[in-house]
Amino acid sequence: MMKKRVLTLLLLAVVATSAGCAYRRYLGMHGPSTKNYPDIHFDSIKEDSECLDCHSPKNTSGEAPTTSHPTFKGCLKCHNDPVT
Ligand code: HEC
Ligand code: HEC
Predict the structure, then answer these.
(1) Dist CA 33 CA 43 (whole Å)
(2) Domain map of the chain by residue range?
C-alpha cells in the first residue's frame, strides 16, 4: 500500500521533470520555423553556415535573434516546419 504510493510519486516526478523546458531542444523537438519570416529566409538558404552568418552568438548586429545552439548540425531539420 505505502510502497505503491511512493512509486506513483516517483513516476509523477519523472514525468514532470522530463517535460521541463531544458529538455525541449535535445529531444529533437521542433524549433520556431524559418517560414515565419519568408521575406528573410529565402528558400535558397540551406547551409548551416549561412544561418550562422546571421544567427551566430558572435553576430553582434543585434538584428537576428542569436541561437543558443550554434554547434548543432542541420538547422533546417528543426526549423523548417510549414506554418499553419
Ligand atoms: C534538434 C533541433 C534543433 C536544431 C538542429 C537547431 N535548432 Fe534552433 N531551436 C530549436 C528549438 C527547440 C528552439 C526553441 C527553444 C530555444 O530557444 O532554445 C530553437 C531556437 C532557435 C533560435 C531562437 C529563436 C528565438 O526566437 O530566439 C534560433 C535563432 C535558432 N534556434 C537557430 C538555429 C540555427 C542557426 C541552427 C543550426 C546551427 C539551429 N537552430 C539548429 C531546435 C533546433
Ligand atoms: C540574412 C540574415 C538571416 C539568415 C541568412 C537567416 N536568418 Fe533566421 N532570422 C533573421 C532575422 C533578422 C530574424 C528575426 C525576424 C524578426 O524577429 O522579425 C530571424 C529569425 C529566425 C528564427 C526565429 C523565428 C521565430 O519565429 O522566432 C529562427 C528559428 C531562425 N531565424 C532560423 C534560421 C535558420 C535555421 C536559418 C538558415 C536556414 C536562418 N535563420 C537564416 C535573419 C536571418
Answers:
(1) 13
(2) 2-78
Of 72, 84, 66, 76, the residue nearest 45 (C-alpha): 76
For 22-37, what is each residue's pLDDT tens digit?
444 445 567 788 888 8
List the end-to-end C-alpha distance of the chain, in Å, as a whole number: 48
pLDDT tens column, 63-83: 889 999 999 999 998 898 887
Q: How far is the CA of 55 from the centre of ligand 2 (A)?
A: 7
Comparing C-alpha atoms, which of 43, 49, 42 is closest to residue 70?
Answer: 49
CB of 54 within 6 A of ligand 1: the answer is no
**What residue's CA is closest to ligand 1, atom 39?**
75
| Contacts of 54 by beta carbon, 8 Å cutoff, 6+ apart | 61, 63, 64
